[in-house]
Amino acid sequence: MSQITYTIDPAHSTAGFKVRHLMVAWVKGEFSGVAGTIVYDPENPANTKIEATIDVNTLQTRDEQRDGHLKSPDFFDVAKFPTLTFVSTKAQKTGDGEWKVTGNLTIHGVTKQVVMDVEGPAPEVKDPWGNIKTGASATTKINRTDFGLVWNAALETGGVLVGEEVQISLELELLKK
User: Fold this and answer.
1) What total number of domains does the chain contain?
2) How far is CA 66 from CA 60, 81, 96, 107, 131, in A?
3) Dist. CA 8–CA 34, nearest whole Å
């Protein structure tokens, strides 16, 4: 078996995040516009390559005013930076269906190296239309200020309105080419 190429199915994939609000609760959000390609090499996992793009305009937090603020120049500034990107630089199998994938994450025009914990790929299945599908999940944590997302407000009780640590999770359904 050689390399297998999959494309990310945007209709069945999401990129989620959660961040502390008022230092007491988690606020969650999601991007639905996830696209990209994964070249998986089961015989030589180090040759596995991942490229993904997220459309920032698909951001939803279940609050229209907050979504607008997150898309504004205070945070993502979608007019200038309409996409987030991830390009892998290293894939390392750490267990059965477990990986550490290192890559360059670009948010708000700033690129930083991150390491994602990945589960998958799941065993391939055939959908009702004859397409071959698999799936994978990935998680990581970043400090949003490292990417220039520095807006905040101090609380009179101490602390800040929005936490700096952001937990990111990806749920991907992949279509075999």
Assistant:
1) 1
2) 9, 18, 40, 18, 38
3) 7
User: Can you spell out the DSSP letters for the chain?
Assistant: ---EEEEE-GGG-EEEEEEEETTTEEEEEEE--EEEEEEE-SSSGGG-EEEEEEEGGGEE-S-HHHHHHHHSTTTT-TTT--EEEEEEEEEEEEETTEEEEEEEEEETTEEEEEEEEEE-PPPPEE-TTS-EEEEEEEEEEEEGGGGT-----B-TTSSBSEEEEEEEEEEEEEEE-
pLDDT at position 21 is 72
How many CB atoms are closer than 10 A to CB 133?
A: 17
Domain ranges, residue 134: 4-176
| CATH code of residue 9 | 2.40.128.110
**Which tokens is 87 given?**
């390009």
pLDDT score at 158: 63
176 phi and psi angles, rounded to 5 deg: -70, 135
**So what's the pLDDT on residue 141?**
95
Q: Alpha-carbon distance 23 to 161, whole Å?
A: 7
Name the pTM for this structure.
0.90
